[in-house]
Specification:
53% of the residues lie in helices and 7% in strands. The radius of gyration is 21 Å and the shape is globular. The chain folds into 2 domains: 205 residues, HUPs (Rossmann fold); 89 residues, Tyrosyl-Transfer RNA Synthetase. It has a 3-stranded parallel β-sheet with strand order 1-2-3. Strands 4-5 form a two-stranded parallel sheet. Bound molecules: tryptophanyl-5'AMP. The site of tryptophanyl-5'AMP (TYM) has 26 residues, from strand 1, helix 1 and helix 7.
Length: 334
């Protein structure tokens, strides 16, 4: 992990709801093997979470829950830097600076801002608007070359690249220009009841999402009730068969089977058998995570220790970049 010649990966999740199967298949699962080849930094993105009002006690509880789940999913804190965004002051500091290098026109185009401001009309705050700038700071501080995310973060990554390139054109090569790393299957898991909408941890309807801590019978029940398309054909066709395609993505991402193999095996068998197979695969995939989670969550002091060490390691990297930025901007060295 201290080998500085290795390329860097950074990613994170907002503790703004309960972790879903979408977060797992689109993000965390793909983080697991990366520490073999990269220096990996994974955050609890708490500064971003407060762009929408959070209950303080719930935010704290979810932050512990997320960290315990990161580790239960297989992210070893020795081999990955696990930290809270709010514990590393360089994020907010670089975020401010990058606000001065991002155009309002660019932020006006962000679809996540448009969606969230439509959903929270009584709280369209400046943080929600400049959210992608803080995300750019998160990534650029670590000189990350790869950012493993789901499909919905692509636009923010494009903005990050534009801001990095703009800054580098003005001041020399200060930032590594990052690439998104989006998985071929599982990058956009959809809502179970409304399969044209993404599965979201902040969705009010619980039956729309599978949560990583859902017990097996809940998973089976939710999948049984998943909205299916007319006809009973099992084929991957997002536009024509969004419900079937979503469950095929879930089955493929959890079992490793290809879409063709799934279609061949379940076509003509009826939706019931197919749904049961998806439920079995999800339960099997989450069982070891759930088993490890309880023990980890019970040790709050152990979790805080992981975060303290993570913040120290993250700060060392982030502060070096911030220093470079201050220097090229002409600030007096501290
Ligand atoms: P967030 O918290 O909404 O989601 C965390 C990760 O989960 C992925 N994801 C999904 N993937 C597949 N299907 C879904 N239904 C689904 N829902 C969510 C997301 O693409 C993401 O990878 N802005 C980010 C957090 C962030 C960040 C960063 C990420 C802040 N700074 C720096 C990477 C690097 C967000 O809101 O993710």
């Amino acid at each position: 992990m201290t080998d500085t010649a290795r390329p860097i990966v950074l990613s994170g999740i907002q503790p703004s709801g309960r972790l879903t199967l979408g977060n797992y298949l689109g993000a965390i699962k793909n983080w697991l093997p990366l520490s073999e080849r990269y220096d990996c930094y994974y955050m609890l993105v708490d500064l971003h979470a407060i762009t929408v009002r959070q209950d303080p006690a719930q935010l704290r509880e979810r932050s512990y829950e997320f960290l315990a789940l990161y580790i239960a999913c297989g992210l070893d804190p020795q081999r990955n830097v696990l930290f809270a965004q709010s514990h590393v002051p360089a994020h907010a500091r670089l975020g401010w600076i990058l606000n001065c290098y991002t155009q309002m026109g660019e932020l006006n185009r962000m679809t996540q801002f448009k969606d969230k401001s439509a959903k929270h009309v009584d709280n369209i705050n400046a943080g929600l608007y400049s959210y992608p700038v803080l995300m750019a700071a998160d990534i650029l501080l670590y000189q990350a070359s790869q950012v493993p995310v789901g499909d919905d973060q692509k636009q923010h990554l494009e903005l990050t690249r534009d801001v990095a390139q703009r800054f580098n054109n003005l001041y020399g090569k200060v930032f590594t220009v990052p690439e998104p790393m989006i998985p071929p299957v599982g990058a956009r898991i959809m809502s179970l009841k409304e399969p044209t909408k993404k599965m979201s941890k902040s969705d009010e309807a619980e039956t729309n999402a599978i949560y990583l801590l859902d017990p097996p019978d809940t998973i089976v029940r939710k999948l049984k009730k998943a909205e299916m398309d007319s006809g009973n054909e099992i084929r991957f066709d997002i536009a024509g068969k969004p419900g079937v395609s979503n469950l095929m993505s879930i089955l493929s991402a959890t079992s490793g089977e290809s879409f063709d193999a799934i279609a061949e095996r379940y076509n003509g068998q009826g939706y019931g058998k197919f749904k049961q197979a998806v439920a079995d695969a999800v339960v099997e995939c989450l069982a070891p995570v759930q088993a490890k989670y309880r023990e980890l969550r019970a040790d709050e002091e152990g979790l805080r220790k992981v975060l303290r060490s993570g913040a120290d390691r993250a700060s060392a990297k982030a502060d070096a970049t911030l220093k470079k930025v201050h220097d090229v901007l002409g600030f007096i060295p501290e």
